[in-house]
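call fold(seq) -> C-alpha cells
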Amino acid sequence: MTLPRFNALKPGDRAEVTRRYRDDDIAEWCRLAEFDGDWETVPEPLIAALFSYLLGEELPGHGTNYLKQSMRFHGHGRPGEALTASVAVTRLRQDKALVNLETRCLGEDGRLLCDGEALVLFQC
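ret:
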C-alpha cells in the first residue's frame, strides 16, 4: 500500500532550517546531559536535533520514523552562529515507504560542519 503523501515526494525535494544555539541553550543542554564543565562549541547532539526536526516536521514530515542515520563531523559550530541544516530526498522505495535522504549542516560562512545520510519510514 502506497500512501498519498508519500507519492508527492520526489528525489531532489529539500528542506532546511537555520538556528542559532546561544550560550544559554548550550548551558541548558549541558545541564540536561549532566555534563559538568564548559562547552565552547555547539554540541553535536544539538546539530543532530536539527535533522530530527526537519525529518519529523518538514520533509517527509509527520508520520516519519527514523530507521538509521549516519553523520560525519568536519567542523564545530560556534555559540551564536547561524547553523543551517538541510535534508534532501535521494531515493524513494515505494514498495516499503522508505525514504533515503542526504543531510548537511553548514556554518554561517558556508563551511561544512556535518554531512551524512538518513533512512526513514514514512507512515502517514
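The first strand starts at residue 14 and ends at 20.
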